[in-house]
Write a structure and sequence with these properties.
single chain, 418 residues, alpha+beta, six-stranded mixed sheet, 7 helices, 27 strands, 29% strand, elongated, binds adenosine monophosphate, binds magnesium ion
Length: 418
Amino acid sequence: MIGFDEALALIQREVAVLPARTCAAPDAVGLVLASDVCSGEDLPPFDNSAMDGFALRIGSEPLAVGAELDVAGAQAAGDTHAIATSGAWEIMTGARLPDGLDAVIPVEQVEVLVRDGTDRPLRIRTTAVVEPGQHVRLRGEDVRTGACILKAGTRIEAPQLMLLAALGVAQVQVRPAPRVALLTTGRELVDDPTRTLASGEIRNSNGPYLAQRVRDAGAQLVLRETVSDDADAFLAALQRALAAGAEVVLSTGAVSMGRYDFVPDALRRIGACLHFHKVRIRPGKPLLFASLPGGQLYFGLPGNPVSSAVGLRFFVEPALRVLLGLAPERALRVPLAAAFNKRAALRFHLKGGLELDQHGQLQARVLPGQESFRIAPMAQANCWIVLPDTAASPAAGAMVDVYGLGHWLPPQLDEVMT
Ligand code: AMP
Ligand code: MG
C-alpha cells in the first residue's frame, strides 16, 4: 500500500495539461487561461472627469477660493475631443477632458454667477480650493497598453470578464474543460427517486454528487451510467464512455476485496496499466488509478459515499488541475477547535466545519459522524480537515490542514494558496 504523496506523484506523472484553444471572451467563463493576457489599450482610454462640475486649467499650484471664470463650453460623456483655450468648461462624469484643462471642480463647489436663457452657466465663482489634477481620471491610470492584466492559470469569472470587456479583448487562449465520464456500479443501486426501494436496494447518491462535483471542478461530464455488478456490462459502459470522448473515467464501487469487486480484473483484461490500488488513507483506502490503452485516465473510487467524495476531492481534482493548467493546491493552516483521536497511521480526510471562535478567528472542527457511509454530515460540512498519515492525534489548538469542499478559490486567494 502506498502513501498519499506517492499516489499523487504517480497521478501527476501520468497527466499532462490539455492543449490550449482560442475562445470568445464571454465563452471563457469557467475556463482557465492558457496564456497571459496583455492589454492592447489604455484604460481609461482618455483623460476624463470623475465628477459633474467644471474643468479648469490650474497647472501645478492650487487655485484659491473665489476665482471667477467664464464658461467657454460644455463636455458630456461621449463627446469627442475638444480644445480649450481659456476659462472653465462645464463637464459631466466620464466626459473627455478638453485638451488644455487639468483639474475639475465639482458642481457643488461653485456658485453660478450668470446663466443664459436656457439655464446654462456662463460665469462661475469657485467656493473651494482646487488642487492640481483633482477629480481627473488619467488615461491609462487603471491599465496601461502592454500591461499583463491576467496571468495564465487564472479562471475567468465575472470580474475577469469585466476587465476583458473594458479593454476590448475579444478572444482569449484557454484550456478546454476536461471530459469526464462517471460509472456508478452496484446491482443494489436505484437511480429513479420516485421508485420505492425493493428489499436490499439503496438509492444512488454517489452519481448525482460526483456528477455535480465534476462540473464544479471545471470539467465536462460527457456520460453518466449505472451498471450492475457484471464485468461485461461494466466494460460495455466503459466503451461508451470512451466513445463519448472521455479523457478521464471515474467509477464508484467494486474496487475493494469483495467477491463482486470486478473493476481491477476487468481493467487488466482490456490491457489497462494499473498504477496503484490502495492508498494509506481514510476513508477510501481501496482507491485505484490506471491508464487505459488509449491513454485515458481511470480512477476507481470506492463505493462508500464519503470515500468516493474523498477520492474525487484529493485524487481526481488534482489531476483535473493539471489538465486545466493550474498549480497544485496548498492547504489553509487553521487551529483545531477540539482534540481528535486519530486511531490509525493513515492520512485522514475528515468532514469539517470551519467556524469562528469567540474572537472572530477561524478554527476547524471535526464534525460528528465520520464513518464513510454517513451522508447526513456531508450536508453540514463546509471543509475537509486533513491529517497526514504520520501525524499523531492532534490536540485542541493544533494547526491542521484545511481544504475547501471544491478546489476553486477566488483568483486572488488562489495565487496566495498555490
Ligand atoms: P462497494 O465498494 O461496491 O463494495 O460499495 C461499498 C458500499 O458503498 C456499499 O455499502 C454500497 O452499497 C455503497 N455504494 C456503492 N455505490 C454507491 C452509490 N452509487 N451510492 C450510494 N452508495 C453506494
Ligand atoms: Mg458494489
